[in-house]
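Priority: medium. Attachment 1 of 2:
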């Protein structure tokens, strides 16, 4: 198995997930990781770097989505044979009358769908950050969307409150008060894009210079 030799700046401003992505991408682009070379599993790399496995999974998924890595079911993860930097790089067009003056073929882009191996034998889906699609309230969502589009106003195309829609923050404040016993005003609630961003912002507020943060390993 190829060693990645990744060094992380744990005191830096960039997230560990982003640093892992950049370090692996740099090694692929520089040629240190050759096309077709295998990379460690997310669990092995997370253990080696002493980070959450999710940080490695998200970095790997981004590398796969951007074309730097590819997966082979039941085999592992490998460096792509054709890198995106090579597929879309611009080359000088040959001049008329010179050798090779012909229209180059259009670049072809391929994608990889997320799949679960042996899904028929897995009674419970532990895929991170994914919920059961059957639990999504499609009818309720459709009705609310139709009501919102009936009178969208300026909010349809303009930026809103950077802390999030006030109606949603009021609903969240009411919910956590009844369900969790947490007393919070809507003005104290901020809507973010996901758990990773929420944790990042929270740590930035609580972290002191040269301080230490201790978290449990969610994979143990």
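Attachment 2 of 2:
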């Amino acid at each position: 198995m190829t060693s990645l030799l990744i060094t992380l700046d744990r005191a830096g401003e960039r997230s560990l997930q982003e640093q892992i992505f950049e370090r692996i991408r740099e090694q692929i682009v520089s040629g240190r990781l050759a096309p077709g070379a295998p990379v460690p599993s997310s669990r092995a790399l997370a253990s080696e770097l002493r980070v959450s496995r999710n940080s490695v999974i998200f970095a790997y998924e981004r590398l796969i989505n951007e074309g730097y890595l590819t997966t082979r079911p039941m085999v592992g993860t490998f460096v792509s044979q054709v890198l995106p930097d090579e597929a879309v790089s611009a080359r000088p067009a040959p001049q008329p009358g010179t050798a090779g003056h012909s229209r180059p073929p259009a670049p072809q882009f391929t994608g990889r769908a997320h799949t679960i191996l042996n899904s028929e034998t897995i009674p419970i889906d532990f895929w991170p950050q994914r919920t059961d699609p059957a639990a999504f309230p499609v009818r309720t969502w459709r009705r609310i969307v139709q009501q919102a589009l009936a009178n969208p106003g300026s909010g349809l195309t303009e930026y809103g409150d950077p802390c999030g829609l006030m109606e949603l923050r009021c609903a969240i404040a009411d919910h956590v008060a009844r369900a969790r016993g947490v007393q919070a005003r809507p003005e104290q609630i901020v809507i973010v894009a996901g758990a990773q961003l929420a944790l990042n912002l929270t740590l930035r507020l609580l972290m002191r210079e040269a301080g230490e943060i201790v978290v449990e390993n969610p994979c143990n």
